[in-house]
Write a structure and sequence with these properties.
It is built from 3 helices and 7 strands, in the order H-E-E-H-E-E-E-E-H-E. Helix content is 22%, strand content 29%. By secondary structure, the chain is an alpha/beta fold.
Length: 156
């Protein structure tokens, strides 16, 4: 079953395959109409993404973004299968003192910009990214404007 390619897997097939292949590394936290919600440990994210891309035909990283949970950061991936319209929402937690996760830009080329934006706004480092640098803010900035700890001018 691990080498099979599913061009148009159903929500149930996706859930079953991921549960079986990544037991103990990823958890299916919910499903909905054309949605699968997965929580994975960060060391498994890359392998999980390779499998989702290569075996479940998810051709597009629709978005990759950060979320500041105050005591840790989350990285959220929305991955799309164009044959079925199914989206996998994959999340992983990063400890506040180690904001590193492996880049998936070599799996989905479009993920390059999403990862750069997430780095620029949250300070999450995507290890192995081909050009991880700020897009819009100056290189001299020493802060990340989407972190909850960032204060706007005039705020205390």
């Amino acid at each position: 079953m691990s080498g099979e390619i599913y061009q148009a897997p159903s929500v149930q097939e996706i859930s079953d395959l991921l549960r079986d292949k990544f037991s103990g590394k990823a958890e299916i936290t919910g499903t909905g109409e054309r949605r699968v919600y997965v929580k994975a440990d960060r060391d498994s994210v890359y392998d999980l993404c390779v499998y989702i891309h290569d075996n479940l035909t998810f051709e597009h990283a629709t978005s990759i973004m950060g979320n500041d949970m105050k005591d840790h950061m989350e990285v959220i991936y929305h991955l799309s299968n164009y044959y079925t319209g199914v989206i996998i929402e994959l999340t992983t937690d990063l400890p506040a003192d180690d904001l590193h996760v492996r880049s998936v830009a070599d799996i989905w080329v479009g993920g390059n910009w999403h990862e750069r934006e997430t780095y620029e706004l949250f300070g999450i480092v995507f290890d192995g990214h081909p050009k991880l640098e700020r897009l819009l803010t100056p290189d001299t900035y020493e802060f990340y404007p989407f972190r909850k700890s960032y204060k706007l001018r005039g705020q205390e």
